[in-house]
Amino acid sequence: MQAVRIHQTGGPEVLTLESNVPLPQPGAGEVQFKVEATGVNFIETYQRTGLYKVPLPFIPGSEAAGVVSAVGEGVTSLSVGDRIATASGKGGYAQYATAPAGKCSLVPASLSTHTAAAAMLQGMTAHYLSHSTFELKPGHVALVHAAAGGTGQLLVQMAKLLGATVIGTVSSQAKAQVAKEAGADHVILYTVTPDFDEEVKKIVPGGVHVVYDSVGKTTYEKSIKSLRPRGHLVTFGQSSGAIPPFDLLALSAGSFTITRPIMNHYVADEAEFQWRSKDVLGWIAEGKLKVTVSKEFPLEKAGEAHEAIQSRDNAGKILLIPPPL
């Protein structure tokens, strides 16, 4: 099969398309599936650069959707021919990949595998952020950074489904429109008003209950300043760089809390995974959630896909589409 492998860490150029790569074989409790679409995520740029250590050579890609082509020992929940989506796959930048059967969700008949691949990681991230990390309820006010991004749009929509008021930050007028269409009640252009915390306090003088911050280095200080007493900063990404060490006494200004959640701890077992994934895919099938696929790249253009996601000019999901085998 064809697959994109990383042999050494570095820039997008280290994503190398190779032919004649052996097909991955499913182990016990796993399935092999023919990949029809793979989601491109920031974690893969961290793996590529070496920020997150992975054994090399390495085929990136955990979020993908396609058709089951083989099942491993002990798998009874899925069969060859089932259309599945996962955020826990191995080697999704390829024509075939594997995944634990218990971390695969059946794709509703009305959804394409492309839509399912675009929804899994960002959709379940938005789900655990809004339903578990900080459980949004009517009356809550949430600040969502990068509100026009793939996760941001879904998080805004889920926050509105839960009855919260949403303030979103974006970098352009075009993205402001995207955030508004997702349901944001207020939108702040941080390129025009970089002191977004002051704008937040104009909208909500007492501050917000929670900030969902995927940007990191350039936003965390003002995110803290945007909180009301006993407010919560949820930092779940670092598109601008890692948050540097800081004095925890800064949190005593309002008895704030800060957390850094990751997906694995919120889909720790099959039941929790199925709850989140079925909610996300079901809501999309019912028209309650909208997923935006902004760009699709062929597998050989994986480097360009990484450049696109790192440009921060993107509004929506980026997919890699492998050629048929």
Structural class: alpha/beta
Name the quaternary structure. Answer: single chain
Tertiary shape: globular
Give the DSSP E fraction (strand runs of 2 or more residues).
15-25%
Helical proportion, percent range:
25-40%
CATH class of the largest domain: Alpha Beta
- Specify Rg, calculated over alpha carbons: 20 Å
Tell me the number of structural domains. 2
Per the CATH scheme, the topology name of the largest domain is Quinone Oxidoreductase, Chain A, domain 1
Distance between the termini: 7 Å
Give me the CATH superfamily of the largest domain. Medium-chain alcohol dehydrogenases, catalytic domain
Secondary-structure element order, as H and E? EEEHEEEEHEHEHEHEHEEHEHE
Number of strands: 15
Q: Low-confidence runs (pLDDT<50, min 5 residues)?
A: none
Mean pLDDT value: 95
Provide a descriptive summary of the structure in words:
The chain has helices spanning 42-49, 113-133, 150-161, 173-182, 196-203, 220-225, 270-286, 302-310, and strands at 3-6, 15-18, 30-39, 64-71, 83-86, 96-100, 104-106, 141-144, 165-170, 186-189, 208-213, 227-235, 257-259, 293-298, 317-321. The chain is an alpha/beta fold and 325 residues long. It has two domains: 3-120 and 268-321, Medium-chain alcohol dehydrogenases, catalytic domain (Quinone Oxidoreductase, Chain A, domain 1); 137-260, Rossmann fold, CATH 3.40.50.720. The strands form three sheets. Strands 3, 4, 5, 6, 7, 14 and 15 form a seven-stranded mixed sheet that branches. Strands 10-9-8-11-12-13 form a six-stranded parallel sheet, sandwiched between helices. The chain has a two-stranded antiparallel sheet with strand order 1-2. Helix 6 (220-225) links the parallel strand 11 (208-213) and strand 12. Helix 2 (113-133) crosses helix 7 (270-286). The termini are close together. The model has no long low-confidence stretch (mean pLDDT 95).
